[in-house]
Fold:
Amino acid sequence: MLFRSCAGGVVFHGDDVFLLQNEKDEWVLPKGAIREGFLSAEVALRRIQEEAGIEAEIITTAGETSYEFYSITRKAPVCNEITWYLMTAKDGEYAVNKREGFKDGGYFGFEEALKLITYSQDKALVSIAYKKLKQALTQKTKH
Structure:
């Protein structure tokens, strides 16, 4: 099995979270493989920019997930291990990168996002990230 390290972002603008619809009609979070010489945080920020046209900043880590699939091009099973970051967008602007194979995307309210997200571990990740965002904002207002 081929193991790939990846990084991605759970990006919020206010209470809304950004989702992408991929070529399989799955609603997912922006992410990408970490190439040699790059840090996971750099990759996460770059993928958010490339896939969604979003300028974001990292608040904290959001968690880790992994999934396995069979790669037809590599003719081998692959395990993607993803480090996720909780991020906030500088504004509400975005531009879905259709050349990367994405059909649609946008910011969705928390409840609506949970209904749209295809994979249960991504739903759990968004729930955790939302709680961390609320905690971070609460602590910010206390200082």
